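Hi P.,

Sorry for the delay on this. The queue was packed all week, but I finally got your sequence through. Input first:
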Amino acid sequence: MIQKKHLLLILCFWNALGFSQNTIPTEKLDLSTWEIDNYFGFDNQKNQYGIKNNVVIKRSTTDFEYKNIGLGKITHIDFQNPLQIVVFYKDFNTVVLLDNQLNEIKRIDFNLKPELVQLEAVGLSAQNQLWIYDGITNRIGLYNITNDHLKWISTPLKSGIKNYFSDYTFFYWLDHTNQLFTSSIYGTINTLGTLPKYDKMQLLSNSTALYSHENEIYFYEITKERSSKIKLTENFVGNFFFKDGILAIFTQNIITNYKLILP
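Then the structure:
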């Protein structure tokens, strides 16, 4: 039998490693069906974005679609600005900008640029610019959509990029050891901490994230290295997205919305 003092030491050890047994309750709001292959989330106007058969679909009062089979598989969609949606096609080194009805505004083919660039990451930044990460030089840059000018803002990154997130003013990335870094639009780079092993992740701020692992979803406090399990009414297998207190879970063509109040 384990003595009390030994049990206490074990519990302290596990909590110190971030394996907290804290749980965060949710309130189930509603569910809907949507037959798509991949769910990305919803914007600030509650429009939803997904992909089916490599076609971008915007679900609103009227559904809109964008299809471009000539550019290969869609890698990433950035819809933080519903009036300027960014679609990234990594295989063809190309970025497409769409309006709020998914009409093509502009296509940027980096294969045609004077400077050789291999896009590995793309996201919308401030002042009509795009964040880009070049896999050849391992540098972060800002591409001006208006005048097609590319400005490098970082020196070569030592460990590359495993995953990335962005907003208008910051570009975040995880290296292959799950170290989280950030760069401002001025090129100032900071280390934010280490994230746990995950299957999917959404960065919420420079100090918090949601991640899934082994069909469970967790809230993670980066500076405290502490995970708290999100309590759901169903088993989770699929994708998720969180914004404005709503956690959307996509599993087998069903979107379930939960009210989630984070610490």
